[in-house]
Amino acid sequence: MLVRDFMVADVVCVEIPGNRDDVLRILKRTGISGVPVLKDGELVGIITRKDLLRKAEETQLGLLMTPDPVVIRPDAPISEAAQLMVRHNIRRLPVMDAGKMVGLISVADLIGAIAQLRITLPIRDNYISKTYALWEETPLSLVGRILEISGYDAIPVLVEDGTLTGIISERDLIRHSRIEDGVEVSDFSNGTDDDEWTWESIRDMHTISYGISRIQLLPIPVKNAMVKNVLAVPLNAEVGECALKMRRARVDQLPVVNGNKRLVAMLFDRELIKVLLPDQQALRKN
């Protein structure tokens, strides 16, 4: 199973110099999590949803992107793609052949490969992650900060009685964001201790106003932005079964519930692809 068999050949890209707002529109329209950045047709970086949310006031693609991205060959095995994604904590690899980008392979593509393998290993042993949850009335701006601090791509949402009611992800944050323009004022006074009415104080007061443009999350509770029809799996679910559910539902994560249907963990696609690593292949054979 090679990279070329699962990569996407028709890749959405952006060019330098370019506009941050165009990237935001692409991510909103397509639901993808990142795009390669080209300069004069050559690959120079990757821009992701995380970059846009963490650098909300930055507009230059060259400063938003991660330069010199990790790449892979089309004839490499998908196990190598999984190794690189896990090692570098990334979700996509541009596929390069003779110095040219010929495609892109993502975590979602590897999930498709795992679904084909029909792996029967249980998820509870090696692949589920501890998690915490948000209350459904949590403001969306605070959700964005929590996702940034925690490093999670998605967090489950609960109602008052602790029942799982939804999932909020970076994709949902991008979908409920807007570009906000404004004006800020900077004070460049020399900090003199003179009385403010002296000529020296008046002379040394300097301010400058400048326009800013930032990505702003809408002022709404998380319940108005989350995905509500949550697909959950039990603790005894198998790897192949869960990969197939992710593939069909086009989701990056699945809540894991116990026999009482209570949330106990999360299954993230980035953890599930570890089943392709060489040290996991022995488990599959046994």
Molecular structure report:
This is CBS domain-containing protein. Its EC number is 1.1.1.205. Residues 7-63, 65-121, 127-185, 226-283 form the CBS domain. Pfam families: CBS. It is an enzyme of class 1 (oxidoreductase). The chain has 286 residues and is of the alpha+beta class. The chain folds into three domains: 3-117, CBS-domain, CATH 3.10.580.10; 128-175 and 220-285, CBS-domain, CATH 3.10.580; 177-217, no CATH class. It has twelve helices and 15 strands. It has helices at 3-6, 20-30, 49-54, 61-64, 78-88, 107-117, 140-150, 170-175, 199-204, 239-249, 269-272, 278-285; strands spanning 14-15, 34-39, 42-48, 66-67, 92-97, 100-106, 128-129, 134-135, 154-158, 164-169, 177-187, 207-217, 233-234, 253-257, 263-268. A four-stranded mixed sheet has the order 1-2-3-4. A four-stranded mixed sheet has the order 7-15-14-13. Helix 6 (107-117) crosses helix 10. It is flat, with a radius of gyration of 23 Å. The model has no long low-confidence stretch (mean pLDDT 84).
Which helices and strands appear, and what pairs or packs with what?
Layout: H1 3-6, E1 14-15, H2 20-30, E2 34-39, E3 42-48, H3 49-54, H4 61-64, E4 66-67, H5 78-88, E5 92-97, E6 100-106, H6 107-117, E7 128-129, E8 134-135, H7 140-150, E9 154-158, E10 164-169, H8 170-175, E11 177-187, H9 199-204, E12 207-217, E13 233-234, H10 239-249, E14 253-257, E15 263-268, H11 269-272, H12 278-285
Parallel strand pairs: 1-2, 8-9, 13-14
Antiparallel strand pairs: 2-3, 3-4, 5-6, 7-15, 9-10, 11-12, 14-15
Helix pairs in contact: 6-10
